[in-house]
Amino acid sequence: SDDSVTGTFEIVSDDAQYVQCGEVPRSAVTHVFSESKESIKLNWIPPTNFSGKVEIVATFVQDYANYWVKVPSKTLEMLELEPESKPESELDSGQESESKQESEPELLTEDSDKSTCDLLDRLEAGTRQMEAQLQIQRTWIQNLKSGSNMKCAMQKASTVVVDSAVDPSVHLARFSGKILKSDQTLALPYSLAIRWMNFIEVDNVRDGTAWNWTGGVSRSNNSHFSLDMELTEDEFARNITTSPKVIELWTETLKNNPKVQGQFKNFKFAIGQIYGVYNNDQPSTSPVNGNDGYLGIRSKGPSNETALADMYAVFYKQGTLDEFAINNHGRKKQAFQACKWYSKLPKGFSCGLGAPADESCGHHFERFIPIKCSEIVVKVASNFCSRIERNLEDPRPDCHLHVNWT
């Protein structure tokens, strides 16, 4: 009749992890990986000698804007099995009675046997009912995928739908995907982290003052991982700083273009890469920055292996910049053209996969094309691919690639 938490869960599938609700350990469960799924399997274990009515509630997420909160199961009634007591008339005093009780085991009567079986039948039915409720999301997900009866499915699920955009003050980005290890003798990392740098600074700041941020909370098994940011979008944006020298340079460059100059003041753009941390080492906080610099900062395992999302990058973008002209060694050059790969990235957090240069846009360096942030691959390998071995369109599984984007 109240909202108190009771009982614990037992996980029986790989894609699940315990969450502590209040002061009760293992009192809630959530998924580990963000790939689409039909169910996660678990058992609910009531407290010893518990009796009463319980409901199991679940929250399902379709995307950041659509989710179902506290969807209840049917009420389950748990009955405590009480020991059978003997009628008072059967209790005899004296040594003979005690000897008889010791030598002859008590047999359940036909009535008590029937009562016990009825109780077990009810418990079994309740368990089947609970399992059905926990997997009811299969039908909802199928409805959502097919687009049919969505309104009906939402109503049946006591839906709470948020139609507004993601709130940057509370949104914590999650990156996830697969772990690829072609050589099974290599060790998996202890954890994963993201190394961020300021895209605007790139290689222009070499005095150790360039902005960087390293962190994240990761979960992984032998084949998949997830990595959550520790800061909300708003917190991360406030954390990004740009060198005064770079600001001065761009302010001078844009002095004849007040519109873009104003845009630049509110523009923030960070690029990062996911890598593995071995031997309980802390993620690197070295001030070395730049394309080659941040790619080279790695923690190594016992066989000199490194874990790296070598073909992938993660991004954060705030604001926009219109295309403008700059003076490049006496020649005018267009910057931030709409056809450039970095201009096509969405605002907020996003992810990209390395690809060959787009010559049609006059870009001779390699680029990143947008992908879902649940499709990142972390590769475990002991060396980088040689120039002959590197192929962005058909990458090797046994060596790391270097996406030459600048």
Describe the structure.
- The chain is α+β, with helices and mostly antiparallel strands.
- It is 20% helix and 29% strand.
- The chain contains 8 helices and 22 strands.
- The protein has helices spanning 95-103, 110-134, 137-146, 150-156, 233-239, 244-253, 258-265, 291-296, and strands at 8-11, 17-21, 24-30, 42-45, 52-54, 57-63, 66-72, 76-78, 160-161, 174-180, 191-198, 212-215, 217-220, 224-228, 268-277, 306-308, 312-318, 324-328, 331-335, 348-355, 367-371, 376-381.
- It has a 6-stranded antiparallel β-sheet. The chain has a 5-stranded mixed β-sheet with strand order 13-14-10-22-16, with no helix packed on it. A 3-stranded antiparallel β-sheet has the order 6-7-9, covered by helices on one side.
- Strand 6 (57-63) and strand 7 (66-72) form a beta hairpin.
User: Helical content, roughly?
Assistant: 10-25%
| Low-confidence spans | 86-110, 132-165, 284-295
Rounded to the nearest angstrom, the radius of gyration is 30 Å
Helical segment tally?
Answer: 8
Q: Main β-sheet, in a few words?
A: 6 strands, antiparallel
